[in-house]
Each structure stands twice: as C-alpha cells, then as structure tokens.
Design goal:
15 strands; 2 domains; about 35% helix; 17 helices; four-stranded antiparallel beta sheet; alpha/beta; single chain; eleven-stranded mixed beta sheet; Alkaline Phosphatase, subunit A; globular; about 575 residues
C-alpha cells in the first residue's frame, strides 16, 4: 500500500511539473494577434501624421507608438496590390496582373490575367490557420467572388465583403456603367445590407461581431479590414466633412505646393529636392468657374471627411480590443493599395451616375447618393511631392503609407528603407514563426521578410544587388539600390524608359539614362528577366486603362438600354415606312 501511495505521489508531482513546464512553454510561445488595415486610393501624405489635412488621431497614435515607413511601394492598381498583399507573390503569379475591368477580354484567358486569385498561391489567412489563428475579414475583397475565390475558400473563418471594385458607401448600388449593381457576401453567401449601413462603420461593426461570436477565443486572431475609403464615389457623413469645407478652396496648385513643402519639413524628401512640372493636359485652377471650383473643393472636403470617418471607426476597434485585454498583444499594420485616384470620373461616368440616381448637389454634399471624385488635377496634387498617381508607375502611383505598431516592435521610428507590398505576408509569417517560403507545390513568395529591419532599423530590407520588378496595365518599373527605371503608359506617360535616383530625385525629374548607360542597360535586362519569369504580357497598341473602362462602359450602357434602343429604332423605322406610304398616296 505504501508503495502504491508513493507511486501516486510521484505521478502527481510528475503531472504537476509537466503542466508547469507546458504553461511556461505556452507563455513564451504566445503568438501575437495581427490586424491588417487596407485603405483604398490613399497616397503617402493623406494621413495626418504623414502631412495630410485630414484628422486621423488613431492612425497617428499607432504610428507614433510603432514604425512609420516612407518608402513602401504597391502596384499602381488596386486588385494587383491586394493579390500581392494577401499572398506575398507577384501579382502575375497570383492571377491578378491587372484589373478585369481594365483588361481587354482576349487577355483574360492568359496565365496570370484572369483577374481573380488563382490556386497557385496561398493567402495569409490560409497560412495562419497552420498556427491555429482565428481569421476574419471585412470590406472590399476584389479578388473574386465565386465558390473558389471568396474569402471563406481562401482561409478566412468569417467574412463580410464587397465583391466588386467599388460601390456606394451607403447602399447596395454600383458606381460604374459596367457595374450598375454591387454585391456583399457574408461567410460565402450573398446578403443584403443593414439599414444603417455606412461602409467604414459597418466593416468595423462586423469585425467586432466576429470577435464576440468566436467560440475559440483562446486562439490568436488575424483581422483583415479593407475599407472603401477613399475610393469613388467619395462619401461620408456630414459631421465629418464640416471641418474641411474651406480647406481646399485655394485649389490643386496650392495643395500641391503645400504637400511638397510638408514632405521636406517631415524629412520624407531632401531639402534641395525639386517639384516636378504639371502635366500640360491639366487645367489651371483660376481658369475654372466659381461653380466648378466650389464643386471640386467640396469633393476634396468629402475626401478628408471620409478619411476622418474611417479613422474614427478604427478607433472604435482599438477601444474594443483594449477593453477585451487584447490590444497589448496585437500588431497593427496599416497601408494603402495605390496612390490617389486620377480617373476622369467628372465626365461620362458622372453623367451616367446622375441618370442612376446619384447627385452632385453641393447643398447635399457627401451623404447618401452623392457622387464625389477627386479627378486628375487634385490626384496629382495629393500625390505630391511625387510624380503621377493611380494607374501609373511614377512614385505618386506607387508609394503608400505603411505603419507597423504593437508591443515588442520599435516605437517612434521612421524608416525610409525601400520595401514592397509582397514583403508584408512573409513579414507576418516571420513574426508568428512560419516559414517565409511558399509551401511546396505553390508559386514562390517573391517578397522578403522585413522583420530583420524592424528588429534593427540599420539592417536594409533589400541588398545592393536585389532588384524588384513591377508591371501593371503597360506601366512598368524596376528598383535597384535606390535607382529606378520606369515606363509610364499613355495618356500622361510617354511609354519610354527613364532612369532616376530616388533618394536625391524623388520627383523623378532628372533622367540619368545617358549618365549611367551601363546601369540603365543592366536594369532593363533585369526587368526583362523579371517579366519573363512572372509572365508579363504586352498590351495592344494604344491601350490604357481609362480607354478600356470607357469602351466597356459604352458596351454595358448599350446592353442596359438595348430594349429602349430597339423600341426607338423600330418606331423610327415604322415612321419612315409611314412617310413613304403617305408620300406615295398623296403623290
């Protein structure tokens, strides 16, 4: 009996030691929660802490308590950026080389050009499931919405997403002639919208609800929130717009100069940097009528209000995580998918929108039904001190804000190290202890982990001989050790390669191709190797995104109105026959 008691006592002690060791192991192996926030069409200098006019106190606080990057590069178009962000692979390898809305139909059957996430890549959510993460997403997905590409099929446990490239922020309404309707999906099924829907509010409502409904709350979580702010149609509740009604009255020329000077004051660019020239196609502010100036400046006020509204709801999420005791072990990553939107929405698209029930009434600015858009001149000003804007591979189209904030990360650090959108996924994997290489059988992860640089900001992310290629919609770039070759497509670009040294010439003004011909040729050769490796396809002569959107919009409008057109043509035909018969009878 004594032997049995002694055995049981030793067994209890052993079990106790085992549990103690297990608890110690678990406590040292606690994985951080990850919140990835993606803003739509926001350039480097739109957030308050980056020098923008909008008040973004919650984003600013995260930046001050973390690392603030000034040299992050995305694709110049949203869907390719989202594909690279979610997978760590080049957009061509992921199947989203271009937006399907902007791609000639004959190219959509080509490898890499289907416009939806293919099965050659895994998402961050899929990989984090390997580490027992709960995975949630809300907002604009734009990587496909069929039974193979919805978030529930790509690693997310819970989702509430907009399947399209854009939509109204207040109701289920499309925003382009080719996208007259918009669909939202909850956990893989199409759903209606709540009565109090406003995109930024509802996306945070839903992400908090996922936390509340989670049964396995002991597991870490990955939240991916992709806001519609500040994609067209630009809309926001009136109270967020009020502070900015006079902010942009001086016009785009003054805003451009103001942001250029702010960039120097904040140390984003050298003090002796030069501001590039305005595109000759642009109108001067003082050439506009007072009515036009009022409307354009109001659109910018709504843009700032939309940013502030988004920041307000991000603050709600931070408060929730804080109250639940989750904030201390949460890493926030905040960025944007490309530079400011410069499409000519104010022409044919707005005319279409007005026929669909949208309005441009300045007395009812910003709210439900308002169709706001920045236009190319204000987009160019918002992109200052850089060149170009969305859809172009000038720095204004590519360089976006990037913030990483959380416990165990450096605080109050500003980094100008070159980094690329494909680096985000492997960085997350590195942080949580997963391999930064692709799983066997999948396309390679082309990005690099930024964790060594985050740990020691003196460590570069890319070495002197490590280049990065990029192509979207016939605009291309290649980065190597501070140098960049770039070819911008028409109508604002010249489809010619140029060489710039970005640290001294961020505005891409001084072409150094003839000064460094050997480097220029080397980078051209390395870009071609990249293009061959990922499968870049040259678009047809005369192609550019806005023209393709316009062509598809005309076709969509004709299809939509075909019954009316048929009736009109039939009536005209009958009228002609009647006239001929009448003439014959009276003749």
């Amino acid at each position: 009996m004594k032997a049995l008691h002694r055995f049981l006592l030793l067994l209890c002690l052993a079990v106790g030691v085992f549990h103690t060791l297990s608890a110690q192991t678990d406590s040292t192996d606690i994985k951080p929660n990850i919140v990835l926030i993606l803003v739509d069409d926001s350039g480097l200098m739109d957030f308050g802490i980056y020098g923008g006019e909008a008040r973004t106190p919650n984003i600013d606080r995260l930046a001050r308590n973390g690392m603030m990057f000034t040299n992050m590069h995305a694709s110049p178009a949203c869907a390719p950026s989202r594909a690279m962000l979610m997978t760590g692979s080049d957009s061509h390898l992921a199947g989203v080389a271009n937006l399907p809305e902007m791609l000639p139909k004959k190219f959509q059957s080509k490898p890499g050009y289907a416009g939806v996430l293919n099965n050659r890549v895994q998402t961050i959510a899929t990989r984090l499931k390997e580490a027992n993460y709960n995975t949630y997403t809300t907002g604009k997905w734009h990587l496909g919405h069929d039974d193979k590409t919805l978030p529930t099929k790509r690693g997310f446990d819970r989702s509430f997403i907009l399947g399209a490239s854009g939509a109204s922020n207040f109701e289920a309404q499309g925003y382009l002639p080719m996208k007259t309707t918009a669909q939202w999906y909850a956990d893989g099924r199409e759903v209606g919208l709540p009565d109090d829907f406003y995109s930024s509010k509802t996306y945070i409502d839903k992400i908090i609800a996922f936390h509340e409904e989670e049964k396995n709350k002991a597991y870490p979580f990955f939240s991916y929130v992709a806001f519609q702010a500040i994609h067209a149609p630009i809309q926001a509740p009136k109270e967020f717009i009020e502070p900015y009604k006079s902010t942009y009255k001086q016009g785009w020329d003054e805003l451009r100069l103001s942001r250029f000077e702010s960039a120097k004051e904040l140390g984003f660019i050298p003090q002796d940097a030069k501001l590039n020239d305005v595109f000759p196609q642009f109108r001067k502010w003082d050439e506009l009528s007072q009515e036009e100036q009022d409307m354009y400046s109001m659109d910018m006020a709504v843009t700032a209000g939309m940013l502030e509204a988004m920041d307000f709801h991000i603050g709600r999420y931070i408060s929730y995580l804080t109250e639940e005791g989750l904030m201390d072990n949460t890493i926030f990553i905040i960025t944007s998918d490309n530079g400011p939107e410069g499409a000519e929405y104010h022409k044919s698209v707005v005319r279409w929108a007005l026929r669909q029930g949208y309005h441009r009434d300045i007395d009812r600015y910003g709210g439900k039904g308002y169709y706001g858009a920045t236009g190319p001149e204000f987009a160019n000003a918002m992109a200052a001190p850089f060149s170009y804007f969305k859809y172009y591979t000038g720095e204004g189209g590519l360089r976006v804000p990037f913030i990483m904030s959380g416990s165990n990360l450096s605080k109050g650090v500003k980094s100008d190290a070159f980094c690329f959108f494909t680096d985000v996924a492997p960085t997350i994997y590195d942080i949580v202890g997963l391999s930064t290489s692709a799983t066997a059988g999948y396309a390679p992860i082309t990005g690099k982990s930024m964790l060594p640089h985050i740990t020691d900001p003196n460590t570069p992310i890319y070495g002197e001989n490590e280049g990065v290629g990029l192509e979207s919609g016939n605009s291309s770039a290649y980065f190597l050790n501070g140098y960049k070759i770039v070819k911008n497509n028409i109508p604002y670009g010249d489809n010619t390669w140029h060489l710039y040294h970005l640290p001294t010439d961020p505005g891409e003004i001084n072409d150094m191709a003839s000064v460094h011909p050997v480097l220029f040729q080397r980078m051209l050769s390395e870009f071609q190797d990249y293009a061959t490796r990922v499968g870049v396809i040259q678009m047809p002569e005369g192609y550019y995104a806005a023209r393709e959107v316009g062509r598809k919009s005309v076709i969509a409008t004709l299809k939509l109105n075909s019954p009316y057109l048929f009736t009109t043509i039939l009536c005209l035909g009958l009228f002609v026959v009647w006239l001929k018969r009448r003439k014959k009878l009276t003749g």
